[in-house]
Amino acid sequence: MDKTDSDTTVPLRGVHTYVLRSGRMTEAQKRDYEIHSARWCIPYQETIINFADVFENPNPVNIEIGFGMGKATAIIAAENPDKNYIGLEVHRAGVGRLLGEIEKRGLTNLRIIEHDALEVLADMIPDGSVSAFHVFFPDPWPKKRHHKRRLIRRPRTDLIASKLAQSGYLYMVSDWEPYAEEAYLELEATPGLKSMFEGYAPRQTWRPETRFEEKGIEANHRICELMFTTVPEGDAGGGNP
After folding, report:
1. Residues 136, 239 within the same domain
2. Are 34 and 99 contacting, i.e. CB atoms less than 8 angstroms apart?
3. Alpha helix locations (H) across 164-210?
4. Between 20 and 30 A from 166 (CA), which of 27, 127, 148, 235?
5. Res 11 pLDDT > 80
6. Number of domains in the chain
């Protein structure tokens, strides 16, 4: 992958990385949202939160940005009860669906924030506090004029990196290879991050397959996995390990 100049003029706020769609919620999703959101959703606020207060334990916290319908989120949280998870999503149907999964599976290590992920990171998440970021199949915004909306792009990646704890990692998966190629370069150019592999990462078997992935495979798209970790103090950073 050859380096290209990164557009660091993309504002953190003002250009959304998503579009709010008026998708209909099922009756089950509406019911789960109405009954369970007060218990499992953290309201957006312009105040830094304390993870230990939220989860009532000191376990490491992983954040998933844009969990969709929450299938993978719920499975991963259920299989890792010694870790805490926060899912960020703006689409209420997906929030309702995941709330139902939380109740059905009896999960106590998963919370949801229904708000713009970049604003949540900037306003609510302490620096150096997150063990992992999961970004599974983010909107690729394939048209060139929309590339500025891509989530994994500087300076947005600088904000994400600032929230990672020492030895924390960012794990992105995409079935849109041009986006994955650009994302690799953007992450490689982000201060404080380095790739954990030479090029793309191998398939992580602990990650459940999602419907987005199934559609990508059906369309003969390559599934690209990227894993970047924080650079130890004193390391200049950048590039591959």
Report:
1. yes
2. no
3. 177-188
4. 148
5. no
6. 2
Asked which of 125, 159, 193 is the last residue of a domain, the reply is 125
Domain residues for the domain of 113 are: 31-41+69-125
Residues forming the active site:
139
- Are 140 and 208 part of one and the same domain? yes
Rounded CA separation 5/186 (Å): 9
Strands 84-88 and 61-65: parallel
Assess whether 83 and 156 both reside in one domain.
Answer: no
| CB environment 226-238: b (16+ within 10 A), e (fewer) | bbbbbbeeeeeee
Does 62 have pLDDT greater than 80?
yes
119 and 37 share one domain: yes
Q: Is 228 helix (H, G, I), strand (E, B) or coil?
A: strand
> Of 102, 125, 148, which one is at a domain's C-terminal end?
125
Residue 1, C-beta contacts closer than 8 angstroms, at least 6 positions apart: 181, 184, 185, 188, 199
210/175 Cα distance (integer angstroms):
12
Residues of the chain by 3-state class (helix, strand, coil), percent to 5:
35, 20, 45
pLDDT over threshold 90, residue 212:
no
Question: What number is the average pLDDT over the span 109-127?
Answer: 98
Q: Does residue 64 form part of some domain?
A: no
Question: Taking Cα atoms as reference points, which of 164, 156, 155 lies closest to residue 126?
Answer: 164
